[in-house]
UniProtKB/TrEMBL annotation:
It comes from Rhododendron simsii. The lineage of its organism: Eukaryota, Viridiplantae, Streptophyta, Embryophyta, Tracheophyta. GO terms for cellular component: endoplasmic reticulum. InterPro entries: ARM-like (IPR011989), ARM-type_fold (IPR016024), Hsp70_NEF-Inhibitors (IPR050693). GO terms for molecular function: adenyl-nucleotide exchange factor activity. It comes from the Eukaryota. This is Nucleotide exchange factor Fes1 domain-containing protein. Signal peptide: none annotated.
Amino acid sequence: MSDLHKLGGLSVVIRGLDNPDSEIRMTSAWILGKASQNNPVVQKQVLELGGLPKLMVMVKSSFKQEATKALYAVSALIRNNVDGQEMFYAESGDLMLQDILSNSTNDITLRRKCVFLVADLAESQIETRNKVELPFFSNPLFLKSVVDLTASTDLDLQEKALVAIKNLLQLRTTEALVLQNFCDLDGALEKVRQQLQQLMLEDSRRDYAMDLESLRREVELIYHGKLEKLWRHGTLCLDENSHFDIGAGQSFALKPEFDLQTLGWQKVKTVI
Protein backbone atom coordinates (compact mmCIF):
# COMPACT_ATOMS: atom_id res chain seq x y z
CA MET A 1 0.00 0.00 0.00
CA SER A 2 2.92 2.38 0.60
CA ASP A 3 3.74 1.98 -3.12
CA LEU A 4 0.40 3.63 -3.84
CA HIS A 5 1.80 6.92 -2.54
CA LYS A 6 4.98 6.63 -4.61
CA LEU A 7 2.83 6.29 -7.70
CA GLY A 8 0.74 9.32 -6.71
CA GLY A 9 -2.26 7.15 -5.94
CA LEU A 10 -2.89 8.43 -2.42
CA SER A 11 -3.19 12.01 -3.67
CA VAL A 12 -5.75 10.89 -6.23
CA VAL A 13 -7.75 9.00 -3.61
CA ILE A 14 -7.72 11.94 -1.21
CA ARG A 15 -8.92 14.27 -3.97
CA GLY A 16 -11.78 11.83 -4.40
CA LEU A 17 -13.06 12.88 -0.96
CA ASP A 18 -14.09 16.21 -2.50
CA ASN A 19 -15.84 14.66 -5.49
CA PRO A 20 -19.51 15.70 -5.93
CA ASP A 21 -20.41 12.04 -6.53
CA SER A 22 -21.15 10.40 -3.15
CA GLU A 23 -20.17 6.96 -4.45
CA ILE A 24 -16.68 8.21 -5.30
CA ARG A 25 -16.37 9.92 -1.91
CA MET A 26 -17.40 6.74 -0.08
CA THR A 27 -15.09 4.53 -2.14
CA SER A 28 -12.19 6.92 -1.51
CA ALA A 29 -12.87 6.88 2.25
CA TRP A 30 -13.03 3.09 2.27
CA ILE A 31 -9.71 2.81 0.39
CA LEU A 32 -8.01 5.20 2.81
CA GLY A 33 -9.38 3.31 5.80
CA LYS A 34 -8.27 -0.04 4.42
CA ALA A 35 -4.82 1.28 3.47
CA SER A 36 -4.26 3.02 6.83
CA GLN A 37 -5.30 0.12 9.05
CA ASN A 38 -2.31 -0.95 11.18
CA ASN A 39 0.03 0.73 8.68
CA PRO A 40 2.00 3.63 10.25
CA VAL A 41 3.69 4.48 6.93
CA VAL A 42 0.41 5.00 5.09
CA GLN A 43 -1.11 6.76 8.12
CA LYS A 44 1.74 9.29 8.05
CA GLN A 45 1.37 9.82 4.30
CA VAL A 46 -2.40 10.37 4.46
CA LEU A 47 -2.01 12.78 7.39
CA GLU A 48 0.65 14.77 5.53
CA LEU A 49 -1.60 14.98 2.46
CA GLY A 50 -4.43 16.47 4.52
CA GLY A 51 -6.77 13.50 4.40
CA LEU A 52 -7.96 13.63 8.03
CA PRO A 53 -9.82 17.00 8.00
CA LYS A 54 -11.62 16.01 4.80
CA LEU A 55 -12.73 12.72 6.31
CA MET A 56 -13.95 14.47 9.46
CA VAL A 57 -16.13 16.75 7.34
CA MET A 58 -17.60 13.66 5.68
CA VAL A 59 -18.44 12.15 9.07
CA LYS A 60 -20.98 14.98 9.49
CA SER A 61 -22.77 13.98 6.28
CA SER A 62 -26.52 13.43 6.54
CA PHE A 63 -26.04 10.41 4.28
CA LYS A 64 -25.48 7.63 6.83
CA GLN A 65 -23.38 5.36 4.60
CA GLU A 66 -21.01 8.20 3.79
CA ALA A 67 -20.70 9.19 7.45
CA THR A 68 -20.07 5.59 8.49
CA LYS A 69 -17.36 4.94 5.89
CA ALA A 70 -15.67 8.24 6.73
CA LEU A 71 -15.62 7.44 10.46
CA TYR A 72 -14.18 4.01 9.67
CA ALA A 73 -11.35 5.75 7.80
CA VAL A 74 -10.80 8.29 10.60
CA SER A 75 -10.56 5.50 13.16
CA ALA A 76 -8.08 3.52 11.03
CA LEU A 77 -6.02 6.63 10.37
CA ILE A 78 -5.48 7.68 14.01
CA ARG A 79 -5.37 4.26 15.66
CA ASN A 80 -2.09 3.91 17.58
CA ASN A 81 -0.88 7.08 15.90
CA VAL A 82 -0.01 9.93 18.28
CA ASP A 83 0.38 12.56 15.54
CA GLY A 84 -2.94 11.54 14.03
CA GLN A 85 -4.70 11.73 17.38
CA GLU A 86 -3.27 15.18 18.11
CA MET A 87 -4.48 16.38 14.71
CA PHE A 88 -7.89 14.79 15.39
CA TYR A 89 -8.27 16.70 18.67
CA ALA A 90 -7.02 19.92 17.05
CA GLU A 91 -9.85 19.54 14.50
CA SER A 92 -12.39 19.29 17.38
CA GLY A 93 -12.70 15.53 17.10
CA ASP A 94 -13.92 15.36 20.68
CA LEU A 95 -16.98 17.45 19.83
CA MET A 96 -17.61 15.30 16.78
CA LEU A 97 -17.65 12.17 18.93
CA GLN A 98 -19.94 13.69 21.53
CA ASP A 99 -22.38 14.89 18.86
CA ILE A 100 -22.62 11.39 17.39
CA LEU A 101 -23.03 9.64 20.74
CA SER A 102 -25.59 12.05 22.17
CA ASN A 103 -27.88 11.94 19.14
CA SER A 104 -30.06 8.83 19.42
CA THR A 105 -31.35 9.36 15.86
CA ASN A 106 -27.90 8.64 14.41
CA ASP A 107 -27.43 5.39 12.53
CA ILE A 108 -26.67 2.46 14.87
CA THR A 109 -23.58 1.46 12.85
CA LEU A 110 -22.20 5.00 13.10
CA ARG A 111 -22.69 4.98 16.88
CA ARG A 112 -21.00 1.58 17.18
CA LYS A 113 -17.96 2.83 15.28
CA CYS A 114 -17.94 6.02 17.33
CA VAL A 115 -17.96 4.36 20.76
CA PHE A 116 -15.36 1.85 19.52
CA LEU A 117 -13.14 4.81 18.65
CA VAL A 118 -13.77 6.35 22.09
CA ALA A 119 -12.63 3.11 23.74
CA ASP A 120 -9.54 3.04 21.54
CA LEU A 121 -8.62 6.67 22.28
CA ALA A 122 -9.11 6.15 26.01
CA GLU A 123 -6.87 3.08 25.84
CA SER A 124 -4.20 5.18 24.13
CA GLN A 125 -4.40 7.64 27.03
CA ILE A 126 -3.99 4.78 29.52
CA GLU A 127 -0.86 3.60 27.70
CA THR A 128 0.71 7.08 27.81
CA ARG A 129 0.44 7.78 31.52
CA ASN A 130 3.14 10.46 31.36
CA LYS A 131 0.98 12.65 29.12
CA VAL A 132 -1.65 15.09 30.35
CA GLU A 133 -5.10 13.53 29.95
CA LEU A 134 -7.46 15.37 27.68
CA PRO A 135 -10.27 17.20 29.52
CA PHE A 136 -13.05 15.93 27.26
CA PHE A 137 -12.61 12.39 28.63
CA SER A 138 -13.79 13.64 32.03
CA ASN A 139 -16.55 15.92 30.70
CA PRO A 140 -19.80 14.91 32.49
CA LEU A 141 -21.97 15.30 29.37
CA PHE A 142 -19.56 13.22 27.32
CA LEU A 143 -19.42 10.49 29.97
CA LYS A 144 -23.20 10.44 30.21
CA SER A 145 -23.52 10.05 26.44
CA VAL A 146 -21.33 6.91 26.68
CA VAL A 147 -23.13 5.46 29.73
CA ASP A 148 -26.53 6.04 28.10
CA LEU A 149 -25.53 3.69 25.26
CA THR A 150 -25.76 0.75 27.66
CA ALA A 151 -29.55 1.15 27.52
CA SER A 152 -29.52 0.13 23.86
CA THR A 153 -31.20 -3.12 22.88
CA ASP A 154 -28.37 -3.63 20.36
CA LEU A 155 -25.98 -5.99 22.15
CA ASP A 156 -23.01 -5.07 19.97
CA LEU A 157 -23.43 -1.37 20.82
CA GLN A 158 -23.94 -2.27 24.46
CA GLU A 159 -20.73 -4.31 24.52
CA LYS A 160 -18.70 -1.54 22.89
CA ALA A 161 -20.12 0.98 25.39
CA LEU A 162 -19.06 -1.24 28.31
CA VAL A 163 -15.54 -1.52 26.90
CA ALA A 164 -15.39 2.27 26.52
CA ILE A 165 -16.60 2.79 30.11
CA LYS A 166 -14.03 0.28 31.38
CA ASN A 167 -11.23 2.20 29.66
CA LEU A 168 -12.53 5.62 30.72
CA LEU A 169 -12.70 4.46 34.34
CA GLN A 170 -8.99 3.71 34.24
CA LEU A 171 -8.09 7.31 33.43
CA ARG A 172 -6.88 9.39 36.37
CA THR A 173 -9.16 12.34 35.59
CA THR A 174 -12.41 10.39 35.24
CA GLU A 175 -14.42 11.20 38.36
CA ALA A 176 -16.24 8.22 39.84
CA LEU A 177 -18.75 10.56 41.49
CA VAL A 178 -19.68 12.07 38.14
CA LEU A 179 -20.37 8.58 36.83
CA GLN A 180 -22.36 7.77 39.95
CA ASN A 181 -24.47 10.87 40.46
CA PHE A 182 -24.64 12.56 37.07
CA CYS A 183 -24.48 9.53 34.75
CA ASP A 184 -26.20 7.01 37.08
CA LEU A 185 -23.72 4.29 36.21
CA ASP A 186 -25.07 2.15 39.08
CA GLY A 187 -28.54 2.15 37.55
CA ALA A 188 -27.20 1.56 34.05
CA LEU A 189 -25.14 -1.45 35.13
CA GLU A 190 -28.06 -2.91 37.05
CA LYS A 191 -30.35 -2.61 34.02
CA VAL A 192 -27.74 -4.35 31.88
CA ARG A 193 -27.48 -7.12 34.49
CA GLN A 194 -31.23 -7.67 34.44
CA GLN A 195 -31.33 -7.70 30.65
CA LEU A 196 -28.50 -10.22 30.45
CA GLN A 197 -30.16 -12.45 33.04
CA GLN A 198 -33.14 -12.71 30.71
CA LEU A 199 -30.96 -13.40 27.68
CA MET A 200 -29.21 -16.23 29.51
CA LEU A 201 -32.51 -18.08 29.49
CA GLU A 202 -32.33 -18.28 25.69
CA ASP A 203 -30.13 -21.09 24.40
CA SER A 204 -29.12 -19.21 21.26
CA ARG A 205 -27.82 -16.19 23.15
CA ARG A 206 -26.70 -17.66 26.48
CA ASP A 207 -22.96 -17.78 25.76
CA TYR A 208 -22.81 -14.24 24.43
CA ALA A 209 -24.87 -12.97 27.36
CA MET A 210 -22.51 -14.68 29.80
CA ASP A 211 -19.51 -13.05 28.13
CA LEU A 212 -21.21 -9.67 28.34
CA GLU A 213 -22.02 -10.25 32.00
CA SER A 214 -18.33 -10.95 32.69
CA LEU A 215 -17.48 -7.63 31.04
CA ARG A 216 -20.23 -5.85 33.00
CA ARG A 217 -18.87 -7.25 36.28
CA GLU A 218 -15.37 -6.14 35.34
CA VAL A 219 -16.64 -2.60 34.74
CA GLU A 220 -18.50 -2.70 38.05
CA LEU A 221 -15.39 -3.89 39.90
CA ILE A 222 -13.19 -1.10 38.50
CA TYR A 223 -15.91 1.47 39.19
CA HIS A 224 -16.44 0.40 42.81
CA GLY A 225 -12.69 0.29 43.33
CA LYS A 226 -12.44 3.89 42.17
CA LEU A 227 -15.24 4.92 44.52
CA GLU A 228 -13.61 3.08 47.41
CA LYS A 229 -10.40 5.07 46.91
CA LEU A 230 -12.39 8.27 47.39
CA TRP A 231 -13.95 6.97 50.59
CA ARG A 232 -10.64 5.67 51.92
CA HIS A 233 -8.73 8.89 51.22
CA GLY A 234 -11.47 11.11 52.62
CA THR A 235 -11.68 13.25 49.50
CA LEU A 236 -15.48 13.59 49.50
CA CYS A 237 -17.10 16.73 50.85
CA LEU A 238 -20.75 17.44 51.60
CA ASP A 239 -22.35 20.86 51.84
CA GLU A 240 -25.43 21.74 53.90
CA ASN A 241 -27.69 20.45 51.11
CA SER A 242 -25.98 17.04 51.00
CA HIS A 243 -24.26 17.84 47.72
CA PHE A 244 -20.88 16.40 46.86
CA ASP A 245 -18.17 18.91 46.10
CA ILE A 246 -15.74 17.18 43.77
CA GLY A 247 -13.71 20.21 42.82
CA ALA A 248 -13.52 22.22 39.61
CA GLY A 249 -16.79 23.91 40.53
CA GLN A 250 -18.79 20.70 40.21
CA SER A 251 -21.16 19.28 42.81
CA PHE A 252 -23.77 16.56 42.73
CA ALA A 253 -26.66 15.73 45.04
CA LEU A 254 -26.29 12.76 47.37
CA LYS A 255 -28.73 10.04 46.42
CA PRO A 256 -31.19 9.64 49.31
CA GLU A 257 -30.91 5.86 49.39
CA PHE A 258 -27.17 6.00 50.18
CA ASP A 259 -26.14 5.41 53.77
CA LEU A 260 -22.65 6.81 54.20
CA GLN A 261 -21.81 4.70 57.25
CA THR A 262 -22.95 1.49 55.55
CA LEU A 263 -20.83 2.31 52.53
CA GLY A 264 -17.84 2.94 54.75
CA TRP A 265 -17.57 6.68 54.15
CA GLN A 266 -16.07 7.29 57.58
CA LYS A 267 -13.98 10.28 56.47
CA VAL A 268 -16.58 12.37 54.65
CA LYS A 269 -16.27 16.02 55.64
CA THR A 270 -19.25 18.35 56.00
CA VAL A 271 -18.80 21.73 54.37
CA ILE A 272 -21.06 24.48 55.68
